[in-house]
Write a structure and sequence with these properties.
mainly alpha; Arp2/3 complex 21 kDa subunit ARPC3; single chain; about 170 residues
Length: about 170
């Protein structure tokens, strides 16, 4: 029996922490997409989740999403249940969907395709969370807009992720 326990891979942990920090910073600096559409953002912070999935694997991508959404909300002071719930639930569910598709269907889906599914999942989760909390059926009129915006923003973030990963993929991280 060894006397010294294997240390955690410090390099990997450092890179994952950088991705969490990147996601938080991108969330802070991202302006609203269109001021006439409430809550519409491109979702740049999701870039850190996708990069974590690509570079470290599906489970690490979900962990990055959990930390970046929760810590980002705390640092922004968004502890109100609706902003906190939409951020954490939407981001984490999208990460789970992307992680599952990456793990099981990465040969059938491109990075931007997986990211598009993440954008759709994020907006669908947020929609149903707000609908559940507010119990306001008028939100159904907003649902098609959320689907279009989620798919489009997910696709754009996927393209950015693909370009970033192609540059970062040359760096030995693992």
């Amino acid at each position: 029996m060894p006397l010294i326990q294997q240390p955690t891979n410090l390099k990997r942990l450092t890179h994952l922490s950088i991705l969490v920090a990147l996601g938080i910073v991108l969330n802070f600096i991202e302006p609203p997409l269109l001021t006439m559409i409430p809550g519409a953002k491109l979702g740049l912070a999701n870039l850190s989740t996708i990069l974590a999935i690509l570079m470290f694997g599906p489970s690490d991508g979900v962990v990055v999403a959990i930390f970046r959404t929760f810590l980002g909300s705390v640092l922004k002071g968004n502890l109100n249940p609706i902003p906190l719930g939409t951020s954490v639930l939407g981001g984490v569910f999208a990460a789970i969907v992307m992680a599952l598709f990456f793990k099981f269907f990465k040969k059938q889906f491109s990075i931007d395709g997986i990211s598009t599914l993440g954008g759709l999942s994020n907006n669908i989760t947020q929609f149903f969370f707000v609908l559940l909390v507010t119990r306001n059926p008028a939100f159904w009129a907003y649902f098609p807009v959320l689907l279009v915006l989620g798919g489009l923003s997910g696709w754009i973030i996927g393209i950015i992720a693909k370009l970033s990963y192609n540059k970062l993929g040359r760096v030995e991280i693992r």
